[in-house]
Automatic annotation (TrEMBL):
Its main location: membrane. The keyword Lipid metabolism does not apply. Residues 15-197 form the ABC transmembrane type-1 domain. This is Osmoprotectant transport system permease protein. Keywords: Membrane, Transmembrane, Transmembrane helix, Transport. Signal peptide: none annotated. SUPFAM superfamilies: MetI-like. It holds the Pfam family BPD_transp_1. Belongs to the binding-protein-dependent transport system permease family. The chain crosses the membrane at residues 20-40, 47-69, 81-100, 132-159, 179-204. It is a multi-pass membrane protein. It is found in: Cell membrane; Membrane. InterPro entries: ABC_transp_perm/SBD, MetI-like, MetI-like_sf.
Length: 228
């Protein structure tokens, strides 16, 4: 393992690049999935076409998608933007159903109470529906974030530098050390992403800790709004 000790700077640089290529699409995909999921939940006839349509995007092989991106975007083959856009598509495919189902998990009596208090559609979405859907969305986001860390490594096959480059380097030279470094780096990065999503979910759902065993605590959220 002397190779790893003498290449820590290179491994760290590839780790940062890998984190950027994984995190940015996760955030972009979440931002796009929120209105799509709301659309699917707002009008029932939209649910199947929106959820099924976005879900089918995940069936596109990652390598094929990476190769198609330069043709569709007019970018260079090695442009990291290709990977960001492709991974955003995968994130949307994973999160749209999660967002729609999370919004659908809000209890009907909570929705009725919010309407009775005069909450309009936009205000109810941001102050009642979306906060109560955070635990479900957070669970889906954990899957998407970890999945992105894994899939991004495939981009090494088209020459985009990140931890996956250590795999190709190791296989080409029949040298185990870079492969081990790449695997460990991906696992650690996935664990960090997962932990960050868990922490963000806990910060956005303080009533779950205050309310103890009650779930989904929708009444508590509405009561908070009433007091406000």
């Amino acid at each position: 393992m002397d190779w790893i000790g003498s290449h820590l700077d290179d491994i760290w640089s590839l780790t940062l690049q890998h984190a950027w290529l994984s995190a940015v699409p996760t955030l972009l995909g979440l931002l796009v999935s929120l209105p799509l999921g709301w659309l699917a939940r707002r009008w029932s006839w939209c649910y199947v076409p929106v959820v099924a349509g976005t879900g089918l995007l995940y069936t596109i092989p990652s390598l094929a998608l990476f190769i198609l991106m330069p043709l569709l975007l007019g970018t260079q083959v090695l442009d990291p933007v290709n990977v960001v856009v492709a991974m955003t598509i995968y994130t949307i495919a994973l999160l749209t159903r999660t967002v729609a189902d999370g919004l659908g998990s809000v209890p009907d009596d909570v929705v009725a109470a919010a309407r009775a208090m005069g909450f309009g559609g936009v205000r109810r979405f941001f102050t009642v529906d979306l906060p109560l859907a955070v635990p479900v969305i957070g669970a889906g986001l954990r899957v998407a974030a970890v999945s992105n860390v894994s899939i991004v490594s495939v981009a090494a096959l088209i020459g985009v530098q990140q931890l996956g480059s250590l795999f190709t380097d190791g296989f080409q030279r029949d040298f185990l050390d870079p492969i081990v470094a790449g695997v460990v780096g991906c696992v650690v990065l996935a664990l960090v992403f997962d932990l960050l999503v868990v922490l963000a979910t806990r910060l956005l759902t303080p009533w779950q800790r205050a309310g103890g065993r009650r779930a989904p605590d929708g009444d508590a959220a509405v009561e908070t709004e009433v007091r406000a």
